[in-house]
Amino acid sequence: MADRPKIEVASDDEAEEADFLVCVRASEPSVFDDDLYDFCCKCSEKVRHRPHAPIVPKRICMVCAMAAMAEGEEPAEHCITETSLDEARRYLKRS
Ligand SMILES: [Zn+2]
């Protein structure tokens, strides 16, 4: 997958400077019980994110993010926070 974006690991503070927080739509099955909800800045669909997600970036659903990337609006950088990466590692170990 040569065109898959490279994901950098950012601190939680660095992630506050991101333009967007890519979220799953609330209609998708949930993995965690303590997710928080908001709305996509493009389509207003209800979305879900983790409680430790950055506060400042606009929420965008996966569908709109993928469409924006397909239209060449891909952001310069993609990142995951250290907290999210740690949580994902813990989750995958217990699965
Ligand atoms: Zn959307």
What report would you give on this structure?
This protein is 27% helix and 27% strand. The chain is an alpha/beta fold. It has one domain. The strands form two sheets. It has a four-stranded mixed beta sheet with strand order 3-4-2-5. A two-stranded parallel ribbon has the order 1-6. A hairpin with a 6-residue loop joins strand 3 (36-39) and strand 4 (46-49). The longest helix has 13 residues, at 82-94. The radius of gyration is 13 Å and the shape is globular. 18% of the residues are buried. The model has no long low-confidence stretch (mean pLDDT 89). It binds zinc ion. Zinc ion is lined by residues 40, 42-43, 45, 60-61, 63-64.
Please tag this protein with its features.
95 residues, alpha/beta, 4-stranded mixed β-sheet, two-stranded parallel sheet, 6 strands, globular, binds zinc ion
Outline:
The chain is of the alpha/beta class and 95 residues long. The protein has helices spanning 12-15, 62-70, 82-94, and strands spanning 7-10, 20-25, 36-39, 46-49, 58-61, 78-81. The strands form two sheets. Strands 3-4-2-5 form a four-stranded mixed beta sheet. Strands 1-6 form a two-stranded parallel ribbon.
How are the secondary structure elements laid out?
Elements: E1 7-10, H1 12-15, E2 20-25, E3 36-39, E4 46-49, E5 58-61, H2 62-70, E6 78-81, H3 82-94
Parallel strand pairs: 1-6, 2-5
Antiparallel strand pairs: 2-4, 3-4
